[in-house]
Specification:
- The chain folds into two domains: 466 residues, ANL, N-terminal domain (Rossmann fold, 3-Layer(aba) Sandwich), CATH 3.40.50.12780; 133 residues, GMP Synthetase, Chain A, domain 3, CATH 3.30.300.30.
- The protein has 19 helices and 29 strands.
- By secondary structure, the chain is of the alpha/beta class.
- A hairpin with a 3-residue loop joins strand 27 and strand 28.
- The protein is globular.
- Helix 3 packs across helix 5, helix 3 runs parallel beside helix 10 and helix 9 packs across helix 10.
- It starts with a helix and ends in a 6-residue tail after the last helix.
- The chain has an eight-stranded mixed β-sheet with strand order 13-12-9-7-8-15-16-22, sandwiched between helices.
- It binds adenosine-5'-triphosphate (ATP) and magnesium ion (MG).
Length: 619
């Protein structure tokens, strides 16, 4: 703890030394002149800007791959690839393998005419070509825009146009659980939609994921000659070495859309030097990373967690990691734990939504696997309610693993608030203390700097506004209470949605809860609770009083729910977060006719109708 405090202080008071020394562990073609940060967060003094490692030139692909190979880690396993289906097997890729792959693809992209600064879209499943495509872009200075493989043709089309990306890397199709996802067919459709708007995609590079396998028949797609090319043909003639483009520290590295929980997704642009150090340092310190660790982050590369904690952070740390193509429930609800046992995973990082979903099936699917290799557990994405934290700690971690509840955002690129496990005691539900004050932070919303300034810098002059609420306890620990927009003001009491949700989930029959405010004649705002029960529990009205009592006992009478709304399913973004803005609309008196806003990132739109059918005010 003392060491943390000293390092924290040093990171803020002497960034030149603290971050400068750390940055010099990496290769810089041109050394930086100044660590910085040089920034302006005050809109009255001009454009908002942040600059790190000014004057320096480096390359992420070099530091993730070549540097490791040069230091003698070429044969170390970088990626264990675990397929969706057990009978489909697995594969291991060493750092040298990945480097060769990346160079061939980078050369192919260059031969295609791709230049520094061009935007390329990647619409792939979790196969090794996904991180490899990101690194190939980074190698030649192209800006990657990874679109999660669950998005629809419309969403993909919008992102292609927004990024003006004329090349897409996709796959024929992939099995996700028992169902095929037709990535190529969706890409074809997206190209058609974009073309109607006058934007033409010139090249579609298609990885043969199901082709030539027993599941080939599951892939159904067309082929546009002249535009489409198989990945293997695309890279076939290319050399296995490729010189890096040396990128200015503030040159764009990638753009990525936020989850769309609170509105239309924002295309955040991240740059090179600061992002690199942020991803590296947080992976190293948050996860207490050691060379012998086997690391497994379940996030898809389509989200920021997959960028920073699958592709970049682990590789900058020369880590060995598991890349999992499938879903936690296929072929059975114990798949994550099977993977952990198989590869002797020591660091496991997932989201509260997955933990709550797996908790519903009880302890047995976890405990029938040998999880003794686990040492550290991480969570990210939403506040984790203490009940889920304790289950994660006790059942998954066997009571001997530390838990890192990592709070951060697409915009920050790396962890903001997180325990440094081992160094500090944790409290269930608290993200604990700030990480070292340091680099990272997206410098703009792609193509819309004004939206960037208005969203993040208009609330508090001179400060970045995350949009999230938080409490600090007497020990200085931080407790995220949910989005500021979601704080409910009941008769003058400010109540965080996360608190009420935690109280509900602590009830033995409750699996998940989402709480919103609604207009209330007397209290100003009332508390409306959407509740999902555990497998096999009946949605009976008699239980509602019990749940209200539960909240009253845990928090107090002022937080007593006004309505309990049964929710066999909740509206979630494709990254697994509850979309409370949709729930707020469904709690309004005229819910039937409400416009639900941008629901393009909603994973399953049909839950809205189910919720309407359970509406407590249904006539
Ligand atoms: P949008 O910005 O489009 O509304 P989003 O904010 O959900 O979507 P992300 O960048 O994926 O997009 O998520 C970041 C947000 O997730 C944070 O602002 C916070 O609300 C929530 N979050 C992430 N990790 C945690 C955590 N450990 N505890 C509490 N909240 C978290
Ligand atoms: Mg956000």
């Amino acid at each position: 703890m003392e060491e943390y405090q000293a390092m924290y202080k040093a990171s803020l008071e002497d960034p030149e030394k603290f971050w400068g020394d750390m940055a010099r562990e990496f290769y810089w073609k041109t050394p930086f002149e100044k660590v910085g940060p040089t920034y302006n967060f005050d809109r009255t003094k001009g454009d908002v800007s942040i600059r790190w490692f000014e004057g320096g030139a480096t390359n992420l692909s070099y530091n993730c791959l070549d540097r490791n190979v040069e230091q003698g880690f070429g044969s170390k396993t970088a990626i264990y690839y675990e397929c969706n289906d057990l009978d489909d097997g697995h594969a291991a890729y060493s750092y040298s393998d990945v480097l060769r792959m990346v160079c061939k693809l980078a050369n192919a992209l260059k031969a295609e005419g791709v230049q520094k600064g061009d935007r390329l879209s990647v619409y792939l499943p979790m196969i090794v070509e996904l991180p490899a495509s990101m690194l190939a872009c980074a190698r030649i200075g192209a800006v990657h825009s990874v679109v999660f493989g669950g998005f629809s043709a419309e969403s993909l089309a919008g992102r292609l146009q927004d990024a003006q990306s004329s090349l897409v890397i996709t796959a024929d199709a992939v099995m996700r659980g028992a169902k095929p996802v037709q990535l190529k067919a969706i890409t074809d459709k997206a190209c058609e939609i974009a073309a109607k708007d006058g934007f033409n995609v010139q090249r579609v590079v298609c990885v043969a994921r199901l082709k030539d396998t027993p599941r080939a028949g599951q892939a159904q797609h067309g082929w546009v000659s002249g535009r489409d090319v198989w990945y293997s043909d695309f890279v076939a003639a290319q050399a296995e070495e490729c010189e890096c483009e040396w990128m200015d520290s503030e040159a764009p590295l990638f753009m990525l859309y936020t989850s769309g929980s609170t509105g239309k997704p924002k295309g955040v642009l991240h740059t090179t030097g600061g992002y690199m150090l942020g991803a590296f340092a947080t992976t190293k310190y948050t996860f207490d990373y050691h060379p012998e660790d086997v690391y497994f982050c379940t996030a898809d590369c389509g989200w920021i967690t997959g960028h920073s904690y699958v592709t970049y952070g682990p590789m900058l740390n020369t880590a060995t990691q598991v890349l999992f193509e499938g879903v936690p429930t296929h072929p059975d609800v114990d798949r994550f734990w099977k993977v952990c046992e198989k590869y002797k995973v020591s660091i496991f990082y997932t989201a509260p939504t997955a933990i709550r979903a797996l908790m519903k099936s009880g302890d047995a699917p976890v405990t029938r696997n040998d999880l003794s290799s686990l040492r550290l557990l991480g969570t990210v994405g939403e506040p984790i309610n203490p009940e889920a934290w304790r289950w994660y700690y006790r059942v998954v971690g066997g009571g001997h693993c530390a838990i890192a509840d990592t709070y951060w955002q697409t915009e920050t690129g790396s962890h903001l608030i997180t325990p440094l496990v081992g160094a500090m005691d944790c409290k269930p539900g608290s993200a604990v203390l700030p990480f070292f004050g340091g680099p990272g932070g997206g410098g703009t919303v792609y193509g819309d700097h004004k939206r960037f300034e208005e969203t993040y810098f208009s609330q508090f002059n001179g400060c970045y506004f995350t949009g999230d609420g938080c409490k600090r306890d007497k020990d200085g620990f931080y407790w995220l209470t949910g989005r500021m927009d979601d704080v409910i003001n009941v008769s003058g009491h400010r109540i965080g949605t996360a608190e009420v949700e935690s109280a509900l989930v602590a009830h033995a029959k409750v699996a998940e809860a989402a709480v919103v405010g609604f207009p209330h004649d007397i209290k100003g705002e009332g508390i409306w609770c959407y509740v999902t029960l555990n497998e096999g529990e009946a949605y009976e009205d008699s239980l509602k009083a019990d749940l209200k009592k539960q909240v009253r006992e845990v928090i107090g009478a002022f937080a007593m729910p006004d309505e309990i709304h049964w929710a066999p399913g909740l509206p979630k973004t494709r990254s697994g977060k509850i979309m409370r803005r949709v729930l707020r609309k469904l709690a309004l008196p005229d819910y039937e006719t409400q416009d639900l806003g941008d629901t393009s990132t909603l994973a399953d739109p049909s839950v809205v109708d189910v919720l309407k059918s359970y509406h407590p005010r249904k006539k």
